[in-house]
Amino acid sequence: MPPLPPPLPPAERTVGQLVAEAMRLYGRRFWPSLALGIPPSILNLLARTLDDGVLLVAVPLAGGILLSASYLGAVALAAERPVRFWQPLVGGVLVFLPFPFLVAFFILPGLAWLAALGLVVPVLALERVGFGFAFLRAYKLARADFVHALGSLATLAILVFLTQSGLFFLLRGTSDQTLAIASFVASLVVSPLLFLGAALLYFDQEARENGKRVPRR
């Protein structure tokens, strides 16, 4: 078979190629990438064990901390250089707080919210900007090509959801304990793809914002 063409640069990368590059990064840095699935797997277990009243408080706060930690780890893997820790973590928590309430009615408003401001985590991790200005910077990056940002997050979310659900049904048993283990393993293995793709999205939007964007095909 002829060799595959080289991947497009971030300024020209399509949604499908972003997903492919996330998979390639997952395979190239497998064990560190697999560790990114531990926080969302813990959150998944919390959602299964806590009461509904406790979930309304625990999920926005605990979810913000756990998922922001995984996102920050993915940014470090994608950038291949040291990143800041506390400010990106706090910024990720603030952006995630309204997300569970937005997706309670429909998933699209929540994804649009994350596409608009979710890049604050890599901005604070990689750029030397103030905490308040980082949210404006993230919104500016999102506006560079909002269709690409929203489409990438939606594609990643659908892919992770379907793959994780399929793996869960393959692993599940009959007891509650087996269901919990199957859910944990499925989330552990599949969810890193979402964070790696979101981390690579930052570099796509940065390239587009810098004026390197080409007409969409």
Tell me the layout of helices and strands.
Layout: H1 15-28, H2 30-35, H3 38-49, H4 52-79, H5 86-96, H6 99-103, H7 107-117, H8 120-126, H9 131-144, H10 146-171, H11 176-190, H12 192-212
Helix pairs in contact: 1-10, 1-12, 3-4, 3-11, 4-5, 4-8, 4-12, 5-8, 7-10, 8-9, 9-12, 10-11, 10-12
Protein traits:
12 helices; 0% strand; globular; mainly alpha; 78% helix; 217 residues
Q: What is the percent of helical residues?
A: over 70%
Q: How does the helix and strand content classify structurally? A: mainly alpha
Which series of helices and strands comes N to C? HHHHHHHHHHHH
**How much beta, percentage-wise?**
under 5%
Which parts are unreliable, with pLDDT below 50 for 5 consecutive residues or more? 213-217
* Mean of residue pLDDT values: 89
Radius of gyration: 17 Å
Taken together, the total number of domains comes to 1
The total strand number stands at 0
Notes on the protein architecture:
The protein has helices spanning 15-28, 30-35, 38-49, 52-79, 86-96, 99-103, 107-117, 120-126, 131-144, 146-171, 176-190, 192-212. The chain has one domain. With 217 residues, it is an all-alpha fold. The relative contact order is 0.17. It contains 12 helices and no strands. The two termini are 26 Å apart.
